[in-house]
Amino acid sequence: MRVIFIGPPGAGKGTQAQFICDKLHIPKISTGDMLRAEIEAGSKIGQAVHDLIAKGQLVDDKTVIELIKQRINSKDCDKGFLFDGFPRTVKQAEALEEARVKIDCVISLEVPDQTIIDRLSGRRIHLASGRVYHLQYNPPKIPKQDDFTGEPLVQREDDKEDVIRNRLKTFHQETEPLKEWYQARLGKSKGYFAVEGSGDIKEVQKKIETIIKIASPWGIGGGH
Ligand code: AP5
Q1: Ligand 1 pocket by C-beta < 6 Å: which residues?
Q2: Would you state the CATH architecture of domain 2-26+79-218?
Q3: What is the residue extent of each domain of the chain?
Q4: Mean pLDDT for each 10-residue chunk of the chain (224 residues)?
Q5: Is there a contact between 166 and 113 (Cβ–Cβ < 8 Å)?
Q6: Residue 105 belongs to what H/E stretch?
């Protein structure tokens, strides 16, 4: 099963990806997490992308496509994967198509801009795993600590209101055209699905699970 989540910053892609990947036993591939890991490691890529991310701009297509090509060649991707935050431009989607990476299902999480600002200001993350929490809507069991490792949670550098607004602008300009692109290729409610993402986390999860059951060759929890 190869799934893509499209959605504005803070739509809940990372949150929902955690649930779906656990159920389907496939890895979550988040280019945002991968790029933050490069920054944390102080690598050449990390140094080159730090300022762009901090300003809420996209990293260049070439860098991101290269990271993804390497990642999907790993053994854990043999049975599928979920892309969270990739592709983000039509050029990135075309690169997947050129590499003959077949996609089963694209899910667009639809959330209005006003809701995004509220969500992102309360978000906290566990840097090493990419696990996502919210102070109010999805709090950790022990305040300020990751549920699995007990390590400290942090606020992302790009979760400041002015940067969030830039990220939203970038989403509408660069990423939103992908919805039509995939709709034309996969068909509405066949391989491409739009999901209202502003309900509570469990409600959205149920909607996505129903879609995955329709689109998955095995079904959630099925043997593979
Ligand atoms: P990335 O890390 O991908 O950030 P993003 O797409 O902006 O998405 P977020 O991670 O902010 O949000 P999300 O939809 O995952 O929401 P979440 O589940 O955390 O990218 C960061 C940067 O890297 C980009 O700006 C760009 O510079 C660069 N980059 C990455 N990929 C790239 C690419 N392919 N090409 C070029 N550049 C790239 O939820 C948000 C909060 O809301 C959480 O606190 C959560 O607990 C809470 N929440 C979630 N769902 C609900 C709900 N239903 N109700 C209430 N609260 C909820």
Answers
A1: 7, 9-15, 30-32, 35, 52-53, 56-59, 64, 85-86, 88, 92, 119-120, 122-123, 132-134, 137-138, 158, 167, 200-201, 204
A2: 3-Layer(aba) Sandwich (3.40)
A3: 2-26+79-218, 30-78
A4: 96 94 95 95 96 95 96 95 97 96 95 91 91 93 97 92 92 97 90 94 96 72 42
A5: no
A6: strand 105-110
